[in-house]
Design brief:
Helices cover 74% and strands 0% of the residues. It has helices spanning 3-36, 41-44, 59-67, 70-101, 107-116, 122-135, 142-146, 153-164, 168-176, 181-192, 194-209, 213-218, 227-237, 242-272. The chain starts with a helix and ends in a 6-residue tail after the last helix. The protein is globular and about 75 Å long. It has two domains: 3-36; 71-275, MetI-like (MetI-like fold, Orthogonal Bundle), CATH 1.10.3720. The chain has 278 residues and is mostly helical. The relative contact order is 0.14.
Length: 278
């Protein structure tokens, strides 16, 4: 075995060792949360701590579910997530198609100005958005949590790059067949770019599901709380019941994790294709 082969083997071993270590550090908090949600109050506060519960306490989930109006929190979160994601999908696809395929005066300047807004800290936008929402008297409403985030410059730029990779020959051939731009978008562009569009939907849905600061600012009643805000209030009301807090955290995390695991191949395809030129 020559020296070069030994170096390659050592490099491979180190690479996988680093990947495994990274995976363990990433998954360990989630594993601890799940196992802690199945412990008793005495086990979760025991010193030294134990990793596994002696007898899994699945009743913690039922008790946590009854301790707060989680069905209402989930309903509010679903409403905000579904409508926001649908709105972002429509605005992103239409804007990306316009920037990638259509020619109109000031197109490059407009795209540059939009990209420049990405340099503005999100905290600054929260202030102006809150003032606008207050003047519209939308506080404590669904539209307050949805309307300010119906468009995303980053997602528009991302899809613009994908749409630009589609060969011009397809567009010209469609025009020869008397296909209008909207039909071309629906029949050709969207199916070709299914993976990046799905990636945008998943990432936006995850962001909406985990949103905390904005719902905290624009809602002030228990009926309008989303899951993340409701979990914080649940933690405040049940500060010493750590096993219930962990069970409630599992309720918050589990749905979006399941959705991601089902659709993760589209996210991977969307990311890996981002560097490919058509």
């Amino acid at each position: 075995m020559n020296k070069r082969k030994v170096v390659n083997i050592v490099a491979e071993v180190l690479k996988y060792a680093i990947l495994i270590a990274g995976a363990i550090f990433t998954l360990l908090p989630f594993l601890w949360m799940i196992l802690s949600s199945l412990k008793t109050s005495a086990e979760i506060t025991a010193i030294p701590p134990s990793l596994f519960p002696k007898v899994p306490q699945f009743s913690n989930f039922a008790e946590a579910w009854k301790s707060a109006p989680f069905p209402r929190y989930i309903f509010n979160t679903l409403v905000v997530t579904i409508i926001s994601t649908a709105g972002v999908l429509v605005t992103t696809v239409l804007a990306a198609y316009a920037f990638a395929r259509l020619n109109f005066p000031g197109k490059k300047l407009m795209l540059s100005l939009m990209l420049a807004t990405l340099m503005i800290p999100g905290e600054m936008l929260i202030i102006t958005n809150f003032i606008t929402i207050t003047k519209l008297k939308w506080i404590n409403t669904y539209q307050a949590m949805i309307v300010p985030y119906l468009a995303s410059v980053f997602y528009i730029y991302l899809l613009t790059q994908f749409f630009s990779q589609v060969p011009d020959a397809l567009y010209l051939a469609a025009k020869v067949d008397k296909c209008n731009d909207f039909k071309y978008l629906i029949k050709i562009m969207i199916p070709i770019n299914k993976s990046p569009i799905t990636t945008v939907c998943i990432l936006n849905a995850i962001g909406c599901w985990n949103s905390f600061m904005w719902p905290l600012l624009v809602t002030n009643s228990k009926e309008m709380r989303v899951l993340s805000y409701g979990l914080m209030q649940f933690q405040t009301e049940n500060g010493s019941s750590y096993e219930l807090i962990m069970a409630a955290s599992c309720i918050l995390v589990l749905p979006i994790v399941v959705v991601y695991l089902i659709l993760r191949k589209y996210v991977i395809e969307g990311v890996t294709q981002s560097g490919i030129k058509g």
